[in-house]
Amino acid sequence: MFEKITIIGCGLIGSSILRNINNNEISKSITVFDKSKNVVETIKKENLCSNIAKDIQSAVKDSDLIILAIPLSSYKEVLLSSKDAFKKDVLITDTGSVKKEVNKVFENLNLTNISWIASHPIAGTEESGPSAGFKDLFKDRWTIVCDTKNSNKDKVEKLKKFWEFLGSKVKLMSIEEHDHILALTSHLPHAVAYNIVKTAINNDEKFRDEIIKYSAGGLRDFTRIASSDPLMWRDIFIDNSENVIKILDEFSKNIDDFKKAIIEKNGDKLLKIFASTKNVRKEIIQAGQDVKSPDFGRKKN
Amino acid sequence: MFEKITIIGCGLIGSSILRNINNNEISKSITVFDKSKNVVETIKKENLCSNIAKDIQSAVKDSDLIILAIPLSSYKEVLLSSKDAFKKDVLITDTGSVKKEVNKVFENLNLTNISWIASHPIAGTEESGPSAGFKDLFKDRWTIVCDTKNSNKDKVEKLKKFWEFLGSKVKLMSIEEHDHILALTSHLPHAVAYNIVKTAINNDEKFRDEIIKYSAGGLRDFTRIASSDPLMWRDIFIDNSENVIKILDEFSKNIDDFKKAIIEKNGDKLLKIFASTKNVRKEIIQAGQDVKSPDFGRKKN
Fold it and tell me: What domains does chain B contain, in order, with CATH numbers?
């Protein structure tokens, strides 16, 4: 399918791709590049890839598929330092959680003779780094591929096949639609999780130990989400600020309505809210996006 | 330890107690009462208890430990219909999530010759009903026992031993402290979970299918919490309204600060929030209240 694949960035997502494609069925050769010495040491120690590039230019040279699995705020620097070595017609994709801003980075660089098509595998855990990755991370999950009217159709098809090879299902979607839906399904829940944990802990320093101790009543589940990679989430909230702010405004309105129902002891209104949200869970389980006993897509021990 | 234990209400919590104590080590006899025909049928079918009382008066008669495992809004009715049959000096406890209001119910009934000592096992899943219960639900979890200055010390000790027999750790605490801490660790997360799911779904009916499909990015975890028993949660929010409103106000302030940081693209402020919440999770794991790969206290298959 490819002569050479290059993975830039070898954290949870990059290393999971690497663990999955590490054979000759999909590409004659696979090269990885990561600027972190610790990450490179882990790749060597765990024997994840035999071609670890020393510099980014040799990493991308002759590659016909480059995958950016790096923080959103690093795209510009990585592209600037590697673009002169790109092979003609190289397919460049990514794994980032927001598309509009990084798409602007590509547009502003005005790169010719490349095919940039954004991807977003909706998969991950609250852990980060190459040791957290695993082969089946993408299995039965969705990957969103953002094609545009200018996208080369053959390349889109090739990228689709690539993600399917990793076990993922693929959905084509516009950049705008992607950023809106992800703000609802992922960025809103994360924003709120951070603020729940902050509220619970800051509320009363004197009860901190008690709050940790009795966290099994709900809080602990939010701390899982609120322990995701801080750098990644800083970039996501800033890159998708417009959608996130709009949705947080609506969320705040719903919280105000909810408070009103509690103050008025309006049990019927509360029951109505709870019944509707209970149904959503059923639909998610039916859609195969969760199981009754979730393992949160983690590595099986 | 007891001559006769009576469990009123045989849902997730009541049936889990029943499954655990169903032998002669702790009590000579165990009686259960539930007003739902469906629940009684399940108890019979699953052979959970041989003494199923037909009416509440015979259920509590001669009992020296009565456990109320019923919705908070049912306490008054249950006590009114059973109080005339209470054995002298019976120990009455419960498993409810809020204490202040039900304590008032006891005070207003002015029952003499009974020992009312509230309990709250911090254990449960998002499921409900007797089939969802399991023997080890309380294992390594905390149970809060609310003693007051009037509590009979021997009875408090006996109740503590009872929960320890079920595998639970026990903490003594005042009613006020209990209701404050639970508002932070349990009622706030649940209130927010319902509102996240409501916001995500109501936002745009046209994207409903997409939102379900791509829920693996965070939303699905909140739908688990937001699918807990609606009746139970209606009662909790109304009974603990004072604490819940106060904490939701603080939460809303934190959300507003968070929005401000996003609008100002203040990455350092965002990173500071994320780093502090990441530490909380470490503390929870260290405190043994979660594992790196949580199973949410569910039944092992």
Answer: 2-173 (3.40.50.720), 177-286 (1.10.3660.10)
